[in-house]
Amino acid sequence: MYIKTAAMLAMYFVPYFVIVTGFASASLWLFYGLWLVMGLGIVGIGTSIMHDSNHGAYTGNKAVNHFLGSLLNILGGYSVNWKIQHNILHHTYTNVHGLDEDIEAGPLIRMSPEKPLYKFHKFQHLYAWFIYAIMNLYWITVKDYLMLFRYNKNNLLIKQKTTLRKTLIELTLLKVLYVAYIVVLPILFSKVAWYHVVLGLVAMHLVAGFALACIFQPAHVVETSDYSAPDDHRKMENNWALHQVMNTADFAPNNKLVCWFIGGLNFQIEHHLFPHICHVHYPKIAKIVRSVAEEYNIPYNVMPTFRSALWAHGKMLKKLGEPELTPA
Questions:
Q1: pLDDT band, residue 239 (cuts 50/70/90)
Q2: DSSP assignment, residue 111?
Q3: Any idea what the Cα angle at residue 31 is, between residues 25 and 32, rounded to 5°?
Q4: Which of 85, 95, 158, 188 has an alpha carbon within 20 to 30 A of 105's alpha carbon?
Q5: CA 96 to chain centre
Q6: Phi, psi for 251 (deg, rounded to 5)
Q7: CB–CB of 65/33 below 8 Å?
């Protein structure tokens, strides 16, 4: 984990310092290439460092977990929002419409059979990938603020022992700091025209947004997912653990590069069952989980490759765009 942490941080900050110091000004190909590498750095930091840390799984030291989890704040996000959306809502109500915000991407993409169906959804398996690419840009500009107001309305900020006023001030200061170092400093010192800096920033987030969506969505929005919802008394049909297994899928379990780079999130079933365990242990845990699932005749869904996982997600998007997958 220490070696991986150094590698992921270097993937983001080394290109940044090359840009800011003006060494990339001699070639626009190099300049834009560095921004693209930074986009991969965002993915690596988010999946391999920040994700484990905000789950308390990176280390047993709470201070270290808090510090590394806060890396999200300097990548344009906000760790308070992330913990509520991911740790509380997604991990508790996986694939439950109206509660799991990981399957909520606005009206243009339908990722749940419970969501309203529109005619244009029959094309979503084609255009969704372009929307995925811009999700990071939406997140760093507007989404964090909308989330804070929504979480405050639903009393989720109180449960995190914070207030709307405090989080709004903190979030705004973090956004100002982000703009200052990622936009203003490169404009001042990169020796490249300001519009190239802006385009580089956009390219970085397009790479990050697309990659992150391709990592997370195939783990849940696939045909094998159960999509069971609570009844009128807010009780689930299955217990929590069974619900997680039936709404999650693993992929590319034998691809060591994928497993290393995306923080073991290709072992999504194991992550949902044991979110407080560091992802380096998931390959060994997976063997145990799979054997227990087989013993009790519980579906254990795994796709052999990353490409097959993306294909399965595309097939599910197409299916969700058809009237047949709509409640009566």
A1: confident
A2: -
A3: 155
A4: 158
A5: 17
A6: -155, 155
A7: no
Residue holding tokens 């990339």? 24
pLDDT tens, position by position, 14-28: 999 999 999 999 999
Each residue of 117-152: b (16+ CB within 10 Å) or e?
beeebeebbeebbebbbebbbbbbeebbbebbeebb
Burial class (CB in 10 A: 0-12, 13-18, 19+), 17: exposed
Q: What's the CA gap between 121 and 113, in Å, rounded?
A: 12
What is the distance between the alpha carbons of residues 220 and 313, in angstroms, rounded to a whole number? 8
Distance CA 132, CA 144 (A): 17
310 membership: H or E segment, kind and range: helix 306-320
% of residues, the chain, pLDDT over 90: 91
Residue 323 is classified by DSSP as G
CA distance 321 to 119: 8
Closest residue by Cα to residue 67 from 81, 85, 82, 49:
49
User: Tokens 């606005």 — which residue?
Assistant: 106
Condensed to tens digits (0 to 9), the pLDDT of residues 102-141 reads 999 889 999 999 999 999 999 999 999 999 999 999 999 9
Q: What is the pTM of this model?
A: 0.93
Task: Return the ∠ at Cα 226 (arms to 287 and 151), rounded to 5°.
Answer: 100
- Give the separation between CA 275 and CA 87, rounded to whole angstroms: 9
